[in-house]
Amino acid sequence: MTESSRRLAPGSFAMAVLLTCLVAFGPVSTDLYLASLPDMARAFRTDAATVQLTLSGFLAGFAVMQLVYGPLSDRFGRRRVILGGIGVYLAGTVVCVFSPTIEILIAGRVLQAVGACCGPVVGRAVVRDVYPRNEAARVMSYMASAMALAPFLAPIAGGWCHALFGWQANFVLLLLFGLGLGLAVNRLLAETNPHPDRHALSPGRLLGNYALVFRDRHFLGCVLTVAMAFGGMFTFISASSFVLIDVLGLPVQWFGLGFAVVVAGYIAGGFLAGRLTARIGFQRMVTAGTLGCAGSGLVLAGLAFSGVSSLPAVLLPMMLFFLSSALVLPNCTAAAIAPFPQMAGVASAGLGFVQILWGSACGWLVANLFDGSTRPLAAVVMVMGLGALAAYHLLARARG
What we know:
The chain is mainly α. The protein contains 17 helices and no strands. It has one domain: Growth Hormone, Chain: A. Helix 4 packs parallel to helix 6 and helix 4 runs parallel beside helix 7.
């Protein structure tokens, strides 16, 4: 069997599985160890705010590197850049496993982010290389649904792994995940960038490419729509433990189940988007999704500010928000990148940078607004839902 015959066929199911694993690099790396944060604080004799820097530092590195990997993959090809990123990720994970201090652990997490960022940025560009726009939207919808299994299962698996073997064991699991993914990419993924751009990394060309994509009204509208929907989701992710456990009294051992109820909405939405986008069209799907985000945000805020404080009053509207976001994110991502076949890496990187940075800002905002009630969470999610609706209909829909 020749080396080329071992490569995955473009458009195959196995290719979609591999790309899903690449795109899931970030969620797996953040959600697996969440249950370990309290014990990590005790192990390093520090406070919760300092340990939280292992999460915020990861997100910061992840956001910034979005801008780097896209042009790198446009210049040197998708496969080589992915393999290089996975190598950096493995090095950062080893640092995390053997960190003697919290400062070194934070540095290891940033190094992890520098490597892990290759997965979603270059993975989305590979989708653009391999599939036409309508098919790309369908594939991204299925990928989004499958990827949602990461926040669905990772906190549960991480909690059990921590209970049995200690907090370092979660980073050993991440090391094995990265190693297995690297071996799969090396063996199975062929180069998909048919037109490498030799000038993609020149400063003038790079700035010009980013300026070109962000001047496009449709691209900007899709990016802002994605950022708003993701911002609402990350607001819940950031505040969920405080709201569900401290405010609503959910026992710690059942936190993963409560979180899974909401994530189930995203899985269902991704499945619906994959089944229905080709049938009813991109515009109708995203319109339904943005209306769902706005409506669920309004319901959540209405209940919170009218004094209704219960698990169903939070979990059910958030489940609908996640379901609606799954109709929006893959479709708007595919639509944003599709007009730029020669700059798919740059377009993917710009979108990812705004999405992650905006989500991080929403998480920071809701943490600083937290007042021991569900109102801050509800208010931020409502604004994000209305923002997604406005961004799509004012900027993106005209050319959707």
